[in-house]
Amino acid sequence: MSHDLTPEQQKLRDEVRDFADTVVAPAAYEYDTKRELPYEILSEMGDMGLFGLPFPRSHGGQGRDYVDLCLAVEQLARVDQSIAVTLEAGVGLGAMPVWRSGTDAQKEEWIPMLASGRALAAFGLTEADAGSDAAGTKTTAELVGDEWVINGTKQFITNSGTAITRLVTITAVTGMSTRPDGSVKKELTAILVPSGTPGFTVLPPYDKVGWHTSDTHPLAFDDVRVPAANLLGERGRGFAQFIQTLDEGRVAFAALCSGAAQGCLEEAVRYARSRNVFGHPIGSNQHIAFTLARMESRAHSARLAWLDAAQRLVAGQPFKLEASLAKLIGSEAAMANAHDAAQIFGGNGVMNENAVARHYRDSKILEIGEGTTEVQLMVIARELGFAGAPR
């Protein structure tokens, strides 16, 4: 499969790169310090059409595809992972489930506003005892008359409490069934919960190690009532739907990882050329030069991995294995490059005004979010035919 970009994709990549360098990067330290989401920057991203890239023009989108979304996420992640994940989660986890599984009425109601970037949606899967282990889900939704009554909690939910968040898609237990062996199986269903619904509370934000600008909250549902029509997809198909969402989301997340690895490389190359010690640039030292070469190899491999997965997705080919490979390769590349870049910067590498210090803090979550490293290894092992790998 060719990984060449079309002229239109190259143009998009270059435009987002320029926007990242001239608008996002100069503001990154300020907003990271204030731990605030820069809505004016999100508005500009909306004007550029970034939130609508993979959606058709008939629903307010740009009529592009998932590769284009990944290209935009990658370029933003070079300079600010928080801004990049706001786009990645807003589209891949927030809007995409509605587009993939929603009714025509749901798509007409939600996709145009989400594609414009004037509103955000979130994906409420993770709980204290559930995430990778969906059977641990405890949030319930009972159909009472023509309403779902929801009770439970969610945690680590991105884009769930912003000033422009309008929707959260949650997974909930809507019934139980007994398997032939006598064990009990939970029926999981996806339901749309608009922001501001009585009983739906966005709890205070987390105090995170990194991603300070990204919005992340726990959520509580206390007898939350939404119309029966807010069912997303088929009742009992919530597990299959969120697996599809996570598989696709990992591709864009891998592009974010690739961008972070590339950003660390670019900062380290610049510093190695400008920083003089003992009368010459530190890049002239073989150890530094070889470290930069390793960083280049990681960033290059990460980019090829997500491109392969994204192009398979767009072509309608199986991509589960490639998505997990891309996420694994990309997250490890980003973490390793952040470590090496900080080391090259020396004392300056632990000063938060420098991008490499923020990447050092931010990159750890890349090995955890949207499926930990261990989860990716389990998925890859299963795809290799080792059926005994944990599910």
Automatic annotation (TrEMBL):
<feature type="domain" description="Acyl-CoA dehydrogenase/oxidase C-terminal">
    <location>
        <begin position="236"/>
        <end position="384"/>
    </location>
</feature>
<dbReference type="GO" id="GO:0003995">
    <property type="term" value="F:acyl-CoA dehydrogenase activity"/>
</dbReference>
<keyword id="KW-0560">Oxidoreductase</keyword>
<feature type="domain" description="Acyl-CoA oxidase/dehydrogenase middle">
    <location>
        <begin position="122"/>
        <end position="224"/>
    </location>
</feature>
<dbReference type="InterPro" id="IPR036250">
    <property type="entry name" value="AcylCo_DH-like_C"/>
</dbReference>
<dbReference type="Pfam" id="PF02771">
    <property type="entry name" value="Acyl-CoA_dh_N"/>
</dbReference>
<dbReference type="InterPro" id="IPR013786">
    <property type="entry name" value="AcylCoA_DH/ox_N"/>
</dbReference>
<dbReference type="InterPro" id="IPR009100">
    <property type="entry name" value="AcylCoA_DH/oxidase_NM_dom_sf"/>
</dbReference>
<dbReference type="Pfam" id="PF02770">
    <property type="entry name" value="Acyl-CoA_dh_M"/>
</dbReference>
<feature type="domain" description="Acyl-CoA dehydrogenase/oxidase N-terminal">
    <location>
        <begin position="6"/>
        <end position="117"/>
    </location>
</feature>
<dbReference type="InterPro" id="IPR046373">
    <property type="entry name" value="Acyl-CoA_Oxase/DH_mid-dom_sf"/>
</dbReference>
<dbReference type="GO" id="GO:0050660">
    <property type="term" value="F:flavin adenine dinucleotide binding"/>
</dbReference>
<dbReference type="InterPro" id="IPR009075">
    <property type="entry name" value="AcylCo_DH/oxidase_C"/>
</dbReference>
<dbReference type="InterPro" id="IPR037069">
    <property type="entry name" value="AcylCoA_DH/ox_N_sf"/>
</dbReference>
<protein>
    <submittedName>
        <fullName>Butyryl-CoA dehydrogenase</fullName>
    </submittedName>
</protein>
<keyword id="KW-0285">Flavoprotein</keyword>
<comment type="similarity">
    <text>Belongs to the acyl-CoA dehydrogenase family.</text>
</comment>
<dbReference type="InterPro" id="IPR006089">
    <property type="entry name" value="Acyl-CoA_DH_CS"/>
</dbReference>
<keyword id="KW-0274">FAD</keyword>
<dbReference type="Pfam" id="PF00441">
    <property type="entry name" value="Acyl-CoA_dh_1"/>
</dbReference>
<dbReference type="InterPro" id="IPR006091">
    <property type="entry name" value="Acyl-CoA_Oxase/DH_mid-dom"/>
</dbReference>
